[in-house]
Amino acid sequence: MNLPLDYIFIDTSVFQQECFFKNTGRVSKLFNLAKDGYIRILLPIITEKEWLKHFREQAEFNLKSREIERKLELLGHNESASEFLKQYNILLDSFDVSREIENNFKMYISHDGIIRIDYSFFEDAIAGVFDKYFKQEKPFGSGGKAKEFPDAFVLAALEKYAKKNKLDRIVIFSSDKDMLGYRCPLLVTQPVNEYLNNLLEERIPVANKKEKQRIDIDKLFNYIHAGKPEFKSALRKHIEQYLTDTDCYTLHFCYADIEDVSDLKFSIEITAKDMDILSVSDDSIEAVCFPEIDGTVQVTHFSEEDSIWDSEEKEWFYESYKTTEVEISSYFPVVVRMERNELDMGQDPDVKIVDIDFRPLQSSLDNENY
Q: Considering the entire predicted model, what is its pTM?
């Protein structure tokens, strides 16, 4: 994704309810979406330490649980079961549980989709937090929970982050009623299941379509800007056909008879700088670019000053022709169409010239006088 669809915050309450990083849990889905670039997860250091505390407690409890021993006891006296339990306990004693849990935790939160907010970001939040505490404003309630102060600092940091980074909103996932009662237009609370359903079913498909469109437009811009040989060759043929037509120079030579056009020499400069998109459909993109041409051409034309007029017969007694070099310097709009092929193996896009408007070029030829 070019830009994330949302910046989100996952409260510890939801982190626990969704079974931490369990593959089928919603937190795991949010982390995968962040890894793919669809969202960014904001992780204040206070919340990170809360997450790690609860994650470690649950993991250690599961690893050190006597559940395996209790289940093996159902087999009664069984040498194989006893040996298995013995080896299991040996492995468990040699296993650095705390270190492995912390390494695993760090692995989950260490990718570009996670934005960590360190302690320094909280420094100017103290006055505001204590002001809310004394006024008993959310997230402070009448219960006097110890966790209200960490929540207050986290919410203040998130609000500051939104303002500093000019975000329209940060989506908050929490089941804590005091945190849900916090009022700030930049912090929007939403049930995680509703958010995921809307994101996966509606917003991501639309975003993917827009992203594919952006990529295809960039592909077309890059193709035109690169002036690919096949595109230049096709364009050159159209230009040669137009500029070797004697009618192009009639007005330039005051409607004198044009006998021949020869020795056409020109260069084309193609740029996507002023390129405009005309239309985008599921099948193709149409755009207009403005190549510039510079060159010369030899035009053989009737020369009145070198010819002899028979005033009695009212006709030319002797007609003289001369060859004049005409300079060519102009631009001309070119409409191109690129097919939006699904199969992309790194090949150049399929770009065709749809139309060329030679009117600016013709105007430059008409207005040039010798």
A: 0.67
Sites in the chain below the pLDDT cut of 70: 1, 60-78, 81, 85, 88, 90-97, 125-147, 342-346, 368-370
How far apart CA 45 and CA 59 sit, in angstroms, is: 21
Is the separation of the CB atoms in 332 and 358 below 8 Å?
A: yes
Pairing of strands 39-44, 6-10: parallel
Interval 188-228: pLDDT, tens: 999 999 999 999 999 999 999 999 999 999 999 999 988 88
Q: Considering only CA atoms, which of 311, 267, 320 is closest in space to residue 291?
A: 267
- Retrieve residue 112's tokens: 């570009």
Residues whose CB is less than 8 angstroms from the CB of residue 208 and which lie 6 or more positions away in sequence, other chains included:
none
Distance CA 124, CA 160 (A): 10
Do strands 6-10 and 170-173 pair parallel, antiparallel, or not at all (unpaired)? parallel
| DSSP one-letter code for 66 | S
Gap between the Cα atoms of 194 and 19, Å rounded: 18
- Burial degree of 238 (CB within 10 A; 0-12, 13-18, 19+): middle
Distance CA 65, CA 198 (A): 39
DSSP letter (8 states) at residue 186? T
**Residue 175 falls in which region: left (phi positive, over 0), alpha (psi -120 to 50) or beta:** alpha
Biggest alpha carbon–alpha carbon distance for the chain: 139
- Residue type at 328? I
